[in-house]
From TrEMBL, chain A:
Protein name: UPF0336 protein GCM10018793_28790
Transmembrane regions: none
CDD domains on file: R_hydratase_like (cd03441)
Organism placement in taxonomy: Bacteria, Bacillati, Actinomycetota, Actinomycetes, Kitasatosporales
UniProt record similarity statement: Belongs to the UPF0336 family.
GO molecular function, one term: (3R)-hydroxyacyl-[acyl-carrier-protein] dehydratase activity
InterPro entries: FAS1-like_DH_region (IPR039569), HadA-like (IPR016709), HotDog_dom_sf (IPR029069), UPF0336/Enoyl-CoA_hydratase (IPR050965)
UniProtKB/TrEMBL annotation, chain B:
Domain (MaoC-like) ranges: 24-134
Originating organism: Streptomyces sulfonofaciens
Cited Pfam families: MaoC_dehydratas
Protein name: MaoC family dehydratase
GO-annotated molecular function: fatty acid synthase activity
GO biological process, any: fatty acid biosynthetic process
Amino acid sequence: MALDQSFVGRSYPPTDPYEVGREKIREFARAVGDDNPVYADTEAAKALGHPDVIAPPTFVFAITYRAAGQVVEDPQLGLDYSRVVHGDQKFSYTRPVRAGDRLTVTTTIESIKSMAGNDILDIRGEVHDEAGEHVVTAWTKLVARGPEEA
Amino acid sequence: MTEQTAPTAPRPTHRRPAYDTTEVGTELPARTFPVTRETLVRYAGASGDFNPIHWSERFAKGVGLENVIAHGMFTMAEAARVVTDWAGDPGAVVEYGVRFTRQVVVPDDDEGALIEVAGKVAAKLDDEKVRVDLTVTCDGKKVLGMARAVVRLG
């Protein structure tokens, strides 16, 4: 069944702050095999003009996707999560995420489309720091495959 | 116990590319990133994505997949490294987007799968920014589409 179009434009309350830990950044960089010192060494980060170690570009997804759970698990929307696949992902950065950030995410449903029996959901997550300054916006396209044809 | 990390090539010392001397068509150094089951377990822990399609063959096959597949976000992270290593400062990335077009199947052996990433400068933009287009393949087939980054050069 197609999703309710009236959810387009709906925003969910900002999440509780996620505190970005330097060891979490280091763990993530190791997991993707990236030894760039800017992720682990404060002096290397400062040499590039950053106040502290920064996170790899896709690090923030773990935070925005958790926030998108508000949409995915909204019983009123009724998305069948077992049929959901990740279609597209995009980020637009005002600045890189860095250690010590306390980040909140405000999640909005940008669009709901129905195509060839699939529901296509575009979710935007606006990430702000403790001072209320914009850090990054994440757009996540989720595709809920329609039931198999008989 | 020693810390193990995914294999990486030695980091070349390299100056940040200058906007003025960067031309459309400039190729970024291509990279190949191996991904094994161990890589996926490590990424699951670091990213918090514990979907069993990324570690359980039984589960993956049960939902109709050929085998365990890599996290799409893992592939996206590896592809970004071609851009961040070239740019010198990962903080210079101002936009980055991909479409997940094909799964990276990871067999349960020592070799795993190989993610191959090439990139080139596709456009020079205002404000000392350039757009880099990435080609990301596994077994010769594209696994990411519309893989693009916008980078601010000095």
